[in-house]
Amino acid sequence: MHRSEGLAARGFLVFALGALVCGALFGVIGSWQHVIPGVVDAVPFVKSRPLHVSLVVAWIFMAAIGGIYHYLPQIAGVPLHAPRLVWVHLVLFMLTGLAVITSYFMGRFGGREYWEFPPVLGIPIVIGWLLLLYNFFATVRGRQGPWPAYLWMWATGLVFFLFTYLEAHLWLIQRTGDNAVRDLTVQWKAYGALTGSWNMLVYGTSMVVMERISGNARPARSRAAFLLYALGFTNLLFGWAHHIYPVPSATWLRMLAYGISMTEWIVLARIIHQWRATMDAAHSGPRSMSHRFLFASEVWVLLNLALALLISIPAINLFTHGTHITVAHAMGSTIGINTTILFASVCFIANGHATRTMRIGFALFNGALALFWLSLIGAGAVKGWYTVMTDLPFQTIMQQLRPFLIGFAVSGFGVFAGLMVLTGLALRRLNAREEKVVVSPERSKGSAEVRISPVSLDEGPM
Amino acid sequence: MNAPFRDAHVGFGAIHRRVIFFGLVALFVLQTGMTWTLSTDVDDPDAHFSTAAYRGRALYQAFNCTACHQLYGLGGYMGPDLTNVTSDPDKGRAFAKGLILHGTTRMPALGLTDTQADDIVAYLEAVAATGTYPVRSLDLTPWGTYTQMTHAQE
């Protein structure tokens, strides 16, 4: 890998970690605004929520993209096709990110959930994505042999993100003949596929990290890996409608989603478990931080598997939809699974080992997240029961949730503190460490073998 | 990562992968078309967005109402769901417009004009005409669904 493109890939990771810290901070502010109305008046909830959501989504995308730019030359056996475009992409996303944050602080909205910024700011996002698509496909085009499952995941995630992002903005050109049911259905169809797209990028990254740690290429080429890919893709395409069971859309749509919702997570847990056994056999010595994060993601996959399966059953969804249980599902997925997998990737790229401070941050993060998750489930269960079974007014129901919301806000601060520790150490290591990867000359001539020799300039532990 | 990494060519066949991939893409195209054209049976003329409702939807987004409020349970949880706020016999059009114009102790007045408030109310009325939320009739079936889900328009 050239020094320049390596720096740009790390730039994405540094930018991603910055977005994570800021996004978590606004999440803390938003959670306390549920407990103490009016707290942090300078950033009211109408601003703190989109700041939190957009910045955390930016973390997921930027960390996944940084990982792709970092790993792709090693996987393809050739340098990135257009290294300069990585810098253009990075600068474009940084400037767009600043513009989005500025628009939120100024109270300029106009978009929809997840993308509440003025829609015109979506243009540079699409341009940046096209640059990434070009670089990705032009780089892997020269690769010999069949693709492992993670390349299919990345390719699918990249293509379908663009498709669904554009579909999510089609409301801009529709001006007649619509109704709220179709409007919401199409919006959540696009969002469901959008979430599936970034999950594809993250799961692909997870496979790469596991492969690199274990040194075993077989699992990513196995039937099980492609079964996971096929189910993930199927869920991306069709599994979104459980978010809108209560919306009076067509029956076929909801029944199709019900059937498909039951499939994906079990296989993911099985695959990760299988990989862990391989990794344990290969590395019985001290665990790296990447290893720990992958283990944590396995636990969170199982917890979220149980929750996702339950809330996808319509009779249960009746009580959980529109409650904090949906938030628990979203937080468990984006923080528990996506963030831990992406931290595994960041730590792997930073070439880090587990120090005491890192282990404390890791324990604080996961412990607080567990309390956070349980508080949301408790709040959602109470809200769902009172909403469906009684006619109590909204404010009275919210009073019943208060103990859970306090637990949610307090534990949210713990999650933030844990993330601060982990992010600070990861940033320090990313800035301190320079990694040079040598691609063997025979690979570039078409050989099937890739030799990767990371050369660390700083051998201190992380 | 210190050990040489071998790119083993093992496992699932390329043809199988392509069949699965393009099969799913074909289904996705089909489903996208069906979602755009057949995802709703709403036939109440009041449910279709008028020009005022379209303006109201734009204002709903411009003021980021979804940060605090939900429609059919979708949105933020700081404030109440607004799906049926205009059709609720205890609330209604005037109630909704009053809150939009003047706010409450927890919701700020947005500084809207009277016409803009009417537009948002028109949007909420179009939403209310599509159905009822939350579903309170627990008519569950043995296979985990409920009757209102499979017979939405009844």
How are the elements arranged and paired?
The complex is a heterodimer of chains A (462) and B (154).
Chain A: H1 3-35, H2 45-76, H3 83-105, H4 122-140, H5 149-167, H6 180-214, H7 223-238, H8 251-261, H9 264-282, H10 289-311, H11 314-320, H12 324-349, H13 356-389, H14 394-432, E1 435-439, H15 441-444, E2 449-450, E3 452-456
Helix pairs in contact in A: 1-2, 1-3, 1-14, 2-3, 2-4, 2-6, 2-12, 3-4, 4-5, 5-6, 5-7, 6-7, 6-9, 6-12, 7-9, 9-10, 10-12, 12-13, 13-14
Chain B: E1 5-6, H1 14-38, H2 51-62, E2 70-71, E3 74-75, H3 93-102, H4 114-128, H5 147-150
Antiparallel strand pairs in B: 2-3
Helix pairs in contact in B: 2-4, 3-4
CATH topology name of one domain in chain B: Cytochrome Bc1 Complex, Chain D, domain 2
Our count of helices of chain A gives: 15
Quaternary structure annotation: heterodimer
Overall geometry of chain A comes to: globular
Number of helices of chain B: 5
CATH H-level homologous superfamily name of one domain in chain B: Cytochrome c-like domain
Overall pLDDT of chain A: 85
Q: Major sheet of chain A, described briefly?
A: 2 strands, antiparallel
> What is the residue-averaged pLDDT of chain B?
84
Strand adjacency order, main sheet of chain A: 1-3
Most extensive interface, chain pair and sizes: A-B, 89 and 76 residues
Order of helices and strands of chain B: EHHEEHHH
Uncertain runs of chain B are: 1-11
